[in-house]
Amino acid sequence: MSSKMILDLFGMTFFYIVVGLTFMGLGRKITARLQRRVGPPWYQSFLDVFKCFSKTSISHNYIMDLGLIMALAGLIATAYFMPVAKGWTPAGSSSIVVILYLMTIGYLGMAMGVSASGNPNATIGISRALALMFGYEIPFAMIILAMISVLGSSSLSDIAMSQAGGIQNWNIIRFPLGFLAAEIAFQAMIGEKPYDHMIAPAEIASGPMVELGGKFLGIAFLLHAVQLFVETGLMVNLFLGGASTWYEFVGKQFVVYFTSMVINTVFARYRIEQGIKHLWVWAGSFAAIQLVLTRYFDIFSR
Amino acid sequence: MDEIYITNLEKERESMFEGLLNYFRKRSMWMLYYCTGCGAIELPPTMTSRFDMERFGIGPMATPRQADLLLITGYLSQKTLKRVIRSYEQMQEPKYLVGFGSCPINGGIYWDAYPVINHLEMYVPVDMTIAGCMPRPQAVLDGFQRLMDYIQQGKADGWRRYKENYEWYKRNQDELFARTEPVLKGWKDPFAHMPSLEEVMAEEERRKGGAR
User: Fold this and answer.
1) How many of the other CB atoms lie within 10 Å of CB of A127?
2) Residues 177-206 of A with CB under 8 A from B
3) Which residues on chain B are in Cβ contact (under 8 Å) with A32?
4) pTM for the model
5) Which residue of A has its CA nearest to B50?
6) Nearest chain B alpha carbon to A25
7) What's the pLDDT score for residue B211?
8) Cα A83 to the chain's mean position, in Å?
9) Could you give the residue ranges of the DSSP H alpha helices within B48-196?
10) How far is B24 from chain A (nearest CA, A)?
């Protein structure tokens, strides 16, 4: 590994965190404006993270420390496979199978870390998150299968490059039902309403985060920031035509996040079994119809 | 006072970054509200559209581990105080405690009620009290801004006072909790003839051992 690549990786990690935290702050601002409030400044999440790291913290055992670090490392590693501009990735390849596989490590690390704290609320939160994962992974995998079957490549940068040349080539036009399914699944993936069962502050006391204080909570914030970057980036590369520059990429990511925050503001929370049912019935059927149309009738693809 | 000291080294290190860190602490206060009395009803209007507490970075949090600010929103009975102390001790430092209304200050209208404590600051360190019965959202926001000034100046050091004077606080708490013991002496326990849990478990263990 050359020194330039190491520098790239550190720089990109910083970039992911800055973009993710800015999005989180802007998301709170958007929610506030929709509720006719002034809202916190856009840099509020940075203040929160710095404050969290300035506090003392309690660790229950070393599994808790390691689990959270593993989650953060897993998510940052996922982000390295995300094509940012013109198909360039820090990791050099961008197989979508690797991305979906590595993304799970983040959740599993979080699950391991917070379950070690022994708080029942944390365990309930994690079981809800993993149950919800069954709900959204299946529709999402079906859409990706449809795209791979058309393009013949599982590289995310190939998928992004294949949409070059204008809006009419974007997958949001070529796979409209698939986009609808992915948008529903995306809402569950980033854990916003109506699929925020995992956090549910009034119900299970913020779920996995219940026992995290001080620096651990800071790490949880960074986790969420990187997670936002990865998941919005996935949507941009799959449906919104990728990007030729990094600021175009971040702009498109923000459009995806903005939509999600607006949906988050106007909806209430499903119960967990309603949520999974909704994901399977609606997102699942849209994705299945899209897969059949693409694979056997070749209607939307070209 | 033999367990906890703040060493000179720590003080030295704090003085270097304290100004900067205090800025972050004051701009991002997460609160845990202990809804004991009528003060909790003033918080929803303070948080929502009209008065919008979030523009100062103040927001609700679900558990003591995550929170910086413990709000005692009204009168405290002796038994509730136990839970408040447990919650306060679970919070991570630096932490601040705010008493709402006149009840935590001097008992308020409950000053002569037998189960209600009159002076909160004898049992836990109070960083700020907001007068009123109850304080309106304007007063709450004004109080929080005053607290932000105190945090910036380093005056809101209740958590440090609690550690330094823990013996005094603990003695006051113990004196109070001694009064929450059952009053009736010599009452007949209706379950006295039944074996205790330890005895049952020991019996179980013995039988299992015998079976093997």
Assistant:
1) 16
2) 201-202, 205-206
3) 52, 54-55
4) 0.84
5) A37
6) B57
7) 57
8) 15
9) 78-90, 103-106, 137-153, 158-164, 166-178
10) 5
Q: Is B7 on the interface with A (CB under 8 A)?
A: no
For A69, residues 6+ apart whose C-beta sits below 8 A from its C-beta are A109, A219
pLDDT of residue B11: 58
Strand, coil or helix: A246: helix
The Cα of B175 is separated from the nearest Cα of chain A by a number of Å equal to 30
Closest Cα partner for A130 from A118, A141, A119, A122?
A: A122
Q: Kindly indicate whether the ipTM for this predicted assembly is greater than 0.85, answering yes or no.
A: no
Sort out which chain B residues have CB atoms less than 8 A from A48's CB and list them: 28, 57
Sort out which chain A residues have CB atoms less than 8 A from B65's CB and list them.
Answer: 58, 210-213, 217
Question: Which two tokens mark A51?
Answer: 């404050």
Full domain range(s) for residue B24: 8-178
Closest residue of chain A to B65, computed from CA coordinates: A213
Q: What is the CATH number of the domain that holds B71?
A: 3.40.50.12280
| B52:A55 CB<8 A | no
Domain assignment present for B193: no
Length of chain B, in residues? 212
* Residue at B68 is within a domain: yes
Task: Quick: pLDDT tens for B51-89.
Answer: 988 889 898 888 888 899 999 888 888 888 888 998 898
- Which residue of chain B has the CA closest to A200? B62
**B164 within domain boundaries:** yes
Q: Which of B81, B131, B76, B72 is nearest to B101 (CA)?
A: B131
Q: Is residue B34 part of a domain?
A: yes
Average pLDDT across each block of 10 residues of chain A; the chain has 302 residues. List them in order. Answer: 78 90 92 90 92 86 87 89 79 82 86 85 88 88 87 83 80 85 90 84 80 87 91 89 84 92 90 89 90 74 51
Six-digit token string for B63: 């558990």
Q: How many domains does chain B have?
A: 1
Amino acid identity, residue B23?
A: Y
Q: Do A294 and A150 touch, CB atoms closer than 8 A?
A: yes
| Cβ A91 vs Cβ A81: under 8 Å | yes
A34–B contact, CB cutoff 8 A = no
Q: Are A202 and B60 in contact (CB under 8 A)?
A: no
Does the CB of B16 have a partner CB in chain A at under 8 Å?
no
